[in-house]
Design goal:
FAD/NAD(P)-binding domain, 32% helix, 5-stranded antiparallel β-sheet, Enolase-like, domain 1, 3 domains, alpha/beta
Length: 450
Amino acid sequence: MARFDYDLFVIGAGSGGVRAARIAAGFGAKVAIAEEHRIGGTCVIRGCIPKKLFVQASHYAADFEDAVGFGWQQIKPEFSWKTLVANKDKEIDRLNGLYIQTLQKATVQIFECRAVLKDAHTLELADGKTLTAETILIATGGHPYLPDLPGIEHAISSSEAFYLVDFPKRVVISGAGYIAVEFAGIFNGLGADVTVAYRRDKVLRGFDEDVRDHLTRHMAQDGIKFRFETVISSIEKVSGGLEVTYDNGDVELADQVMFATGRVPNTDGLGLSEAGVQLAANGAVIVDDYSRSNLDSIFAVGDVTDRIQLTPVAIREGHAFALTQYGDVPVSPEHDNVPSAVFSNPPIGSVGLTESAAREKYQNIDVYKSEFRPLKHTLSGRDERSLTKLLVEADSDRVVGAHMIGPDAPEIIQGIAIAVKKGLTKTDFDATLAIHPSSAEEFVLMREKS
């Protein structure tokens, strides 16, 4: 008789949980997974995928304008929010189905309900059924943080933004992290008047200073209004919409107020503390280098651990967990030189250290920068410039950071990330022939130090 019902029980069917379940099952483990929302998690259902689709939709207005400089005339497009939302929903349904098929093909049993820990090996499902597992993996992700302030019930987060019935013409966004600037670009590009309110003095805290400044200038150029060192103190529903009051006494009328002020781990009500699992102050599961909690039978991967909140990181952590526990191949997921993208307008690609972090870590840093007008805009007439930046540790000549803001930056930085991850030098970059004409060639053409 088996000692437990399952070898592995995964709570949360997002990117990390699904990868861990599938790989573990491939090694012969008996696996089950529970998800109280839809299979696919934040990225597929209410994050990366629908957001990128909305970002792409928001670019067409500018593309139609730019086309005139290339000879296209009499372009008078009309935008339908309802069509965009409906088509997005169809794609999400398709991906949700593929995720379910993937788990079924891997013989992972799916429970579409909430699962709560009763102890280190026991779980209770929403219908009251009790199951046991030798190992339990927490992969429940995170959710948007909403502050406690008067009228917060009238606000939305990024999750609700994907399902609005009507397109808001006036939007106030609280926050200036990657979600905030991305949605500011989305709503602005689709025709809304957008205000960004932020308690600090600059967008994208933690990113390279040149990139932050560059993005702020371009967003302002596009008509996005900023209220720096300002926070929302209250929201009131009035006849004309939502009345937003700021901490300085200013008042603004909006159709939607969106909070993008961070995300917190989904651990409330899961029974983790009661089972003895140690949690951080924000509720994150504290884990070691192999994603194990303080209890030998309980692990956690992805945003619920609050290490790096990125989908590819969650996938890598889930895969490493399965290899270690079921493939007899101990793997500790690496969290250095993780490339990232911000799908703002213009978009950002980044890998490695920022200039300030590089100067703090190394004694001698060489900085190479190039700011240029993309070829497309020589005919479109649009006042938009791109920025590329390399940070080089002078003593070893190794490239320790690469940053770009401009068209296709996320696509370009993926290849540059390989070079940074492998420790290539500035000499290696210089020895690489450029692809001309392209924006990517700037990374191998920069010769003068800033």
